Amino acid sequence: MSLFGFGRPQPTSAEKIAAVENELRVVAEMHSRMIKLCTLKCVDKTYREGELSKGESVCLDRCAAKFFEAHQTISEQLQREGAARGFGA
Questions:
Q1: Which residue intervals define the domain Tim10-like in the entry (predicted)?
Q2: 42-72 residue pLDDT tens
Q3: I need a surface site. Which of 12, 33, 50, 68 has the fewest CB within 10 A?
Q4: d(CA 79, CA 40)
Q5: Beta-carbon neighbour count of residue 38 at 10 Å?
Q6: Does 73 map to a domain?
């Protein structure tokens, strides 16, 4: 039994480190997917200019915002479902 009476053992340092490493991995994968998808959608494949055009920049900004919004919505839903099944912290 824990000190706070929740009945769950407290995570060890190794478990905390593993959780942080897993979270970093997930964030890195999400970033890579976003870069790939938004680049395919927004950046002209002919690379006519050395800099992004205004249209490409706006497209990338909107794409990234939508990607993060969708990720946040999905994460919240998964947390709710996990908590309902008793997997919450």
A1: 18-79
A2: 998 888 888 999 999 999 999 999 999 999 9
A3: 50
A4: 30
A5: 19
A6: yes
